[in-house]
Amino acid sequence: MKVAVVGASGYTGLELLRILLRHPEFEIAAVTSEQRAGRDVGDVFPALRGRIDLRYEAVDPAALAGRVELAFTALPHAASARAVAALRDAGVRVVDLSADFRLHSLDTYQQWYGEHPVPARLAEAVYGLPELHRDALRTAQLVAAPGCYPTSALLPLAPLLRAGLVETRGIHIDAKSGVSGAGRTLADGYLFGELDGNSHAYKPGYTHRHAPEIEQEASLVAGAEVRVTFVPHLLPITRGMVTSVYVRPRGGDADRARRALHDAYDREPFVRVLPEGETPAIASVRGTNFCDVALFPDARNDTWILLSALDNLGKGASGQAVQCANLMRGLPEESGLLEAPLVP
Q1: Could you tell me which of 177, 182, 189, 188 has the C-alpha nearest to residue 233?
Q2: What are the structural domain ranges in the chain?
Q3: pTM for this structure?
């Protein structure tokens, strides 16, 4: 099956190319980049030299429509929506990695991102977290791939909310990401001299764009409104993410909560519930589509601590996008994604 990567010169685009090159069913037929149009992919990313014989094209959804059946769009917010709409109008199925279709409410989107270029398409999109929306993804025409922070928070949290084991208020999320989560942005805070040996929180509280995304999906799972306090941090590493979620139990013990995690994920290909006492680590998931989760009780403070680790470019972005595309095409979910972690 021929696919396109629209916006293939950023980190998520590069990761998509890396995954798709080993995919047994998907053939990369086109790659686009406005800034690098006309250049060979191998010249822009020397790591891919000799592996992909394509040149970057300018973004032209109409021209792509007759050449591919599915497109991955990895463009900036708003720009992605316009390209997605044009591709869908031409009958191309789309997995979008921007935030343009993740939020169901137009009012919420406008509050965080401004005017939506194609609001009529919001209702068409399926939120691309397979562990929560697998059945809908199988027939989806447009998938909104989740953000990395929401994925890392929702995967350990959702089974406990679904089972009614935790309170829906007073949920605190502390998440730390590698700098590639910000893309190839040129900004002072991402310079080596600023980041090396440094770490800091940014946009704490209800000021980060991923907070309403987390609350939307958590509320759907819980069947009630969920409120979270979310604090993201930047780590002086390239890729990887660790998240701690602090919740209040509603009753039952930690063993029951662990059973809920095992019931949810023991048959999942990419979520691993760690043995009791083991904590998730970035090194165990780097370069993969895995997410490791764990639970620790703090009985003294009547709190359960949920932990997760994933690769923000893998399960947090491009790997998850390919997982969704596999479902959309009726392929084995693991196709192209069972890569061992990059260790050491």
Answers
A1: 177
A2: 2-124, 148-312
A3: 0.95
